[in-house]
Amino acid sequence: MWTWGRAQLAVTAACAASCVLGASGSGVAAEAAVRADLTAQYYDVLSPYGDPVMQRRRYTHTLDLDVADIDGDTSYRAPELAFRTRLRLDADFGQFGYERDPEALGRYAPGLEQAPFDVMVAYLEGRHYLGGAVGFRVGRQYQVDSLGWWSFDGALVRADVPGVFGLEAYGGFEQRDTLGVLGTSRYEADGVFRGNRDDLEQGEWPSYLEQSRLAPAYGGSVQTLGLSFFQARASYRKVLNRDDVLVSLFPDPDGAIRTIDDTRTSTERAGLALTLQHERLGSLDGEAVYDLFSRRLSELQASLDWYASDATTLGLRYDYWLPVFDGDSIFNWFGHTPSQTGEVAAYTEISPRADVALRAGVRVYGLALDPGESLDQDARWVDELAALNARYRWGQGELRFDADSQWGDTGHRVGGNLSASRRFLEGYYDTLVVLSLYDFEDGLREERGTTSMGYVLGGGLSPEIERVLRSRLGLQWEHWYSQRDAHQFRVLLTLSVTEFP
What we know:
The chain is mainly beta and 501 residues long. The chain is built from one helix and 26 strands.
C-alpha cells in the first residue's frame, strides 16, 4: 500500500509556509499568487513482443506560491524582495510491486518510486539593490543559458553596470535525487544511472551508481546590457562528483571489488551566445558550447533571418550536436557520432487569420568538425528533412496542420497531425479534436517499422469562481493504433486553479 511519507510532510510544510507568508504579506502590502495543477493519466503500454505490459496510473500535482513586494515598498526605484516556490508530486499507482523488488529478476527497476516528490524551485529573490545595480537569489533555482536548462541549490549574485554589462556568479550543489533534499535527477548529465543502493548488494546492478553525497557546483556569466541591436552572453559551469563508484563492472581475480571516492569532474562547460538584430532587416544568432571535460566542441548553432516584408521571414539554420556525458559515465570510453543539420525556412502571414511555415534541409551523421574524428565515407548517414505548419484562425476557433518528415539512410518518419480547437461563450467551454497519421521505418531494425494512426478528443470547462482568477477542468481521450503495438488508449484529466488571495 502506498503511503504519503515525506511527500505528505513536505506538502503540509509548504501549505503552512503559504499561510504564514500570506498572513505576513497582508500586513506589509505584499502580493501573493497561488496556483495548483493536477494532471491524471491512465494508460497501458504493451511490449511489441506481447510481454511485459507497462501499466500506469499517474497523478501529477504541482503547487505554486509567488509572494512579491515582501518589503512593502512598491515605489519604482525601490529594492524588491520576492519569494517563489513550486512543488511537484508525481505519483504512479499503476506500478507493480515487483518493479521495486530487487529479488524480482528481469522486472526490477532500480530507483523506481511510486510517489516521487520534489521541490522544483524555492528561492528568495532580491532585485534593484544598491541603486539598482545588485540582485540575488538564495535557494533552489533554475539557470537557463547556452549551457542548457539546469537547477541547483545555493546562491546567485548579479551585479550590473547599467547600459554596459552584467555579471553573475553562483555556487551551491547540483539538484539530484535521493539526497534528502526533495530533488530530482532531471538535471544531471546524461550517461549515468544513480540512486539509493541501500537495498542492493555491492555486486548487484553495478551500473546503478551510489548517490549519497552532495555534488558541488559553481559558475558564472557575463553579458552585454543596453544595446538593442547586439546581445552577447558568455557562461561557465562546473559540477563535481564525490560518491564512491566501481572501477570495473567485474571483480578482481581475488574477488575484491575496487571503488574510487576521489573528488572528480562531473561536467565542465563553457558557452557563448550572440545576437545581432535590426528591426527592419533581420537577425543573426549564434551559439557555441565547449565541453572542457572531453575537450571537444559539443554544440554549435547559427541562424540568419531576413525580414523580407512585414508578413514574410526567410531564414537559414545550421546545427552541430555532439553527445557528451557525465565524467563517471562509461560512454566516455566510446566514440561519439556527431550530427550536423542545415535547413532553409520560410514563414509568411497570408492574411490576418492564416499563416504558413516551411522548412527543408539535410542532416548528416558521422561527419565531425575535426576531419580526424569523422567516420569513413561509407559509414556516414544522410537524411533529408521537410516540414509544413499551417494555421487558420477564426473568431474563437483555430485549425492547424503540422506535418514533418525525415527520410534517407536511417529509414524514414513521415506524417502529420490535423487539429481543430474551438472556444465557446468567451472561453467558458473549449473543445479539441486531433487526427494523426505517421509511418515509421528504422534503417537498422527494419522489423520495427510500422504505420501509426490515432485521434484525440478533448474538452474543458473554465468556470468563474469567487477569489479565483483562472480555472480550467479538462478531459482528453486518446486512441492510437499500429501494426506493432495494436490498440493503445489514454485518458488525461487536468485541473488548473490560479488564485490571488
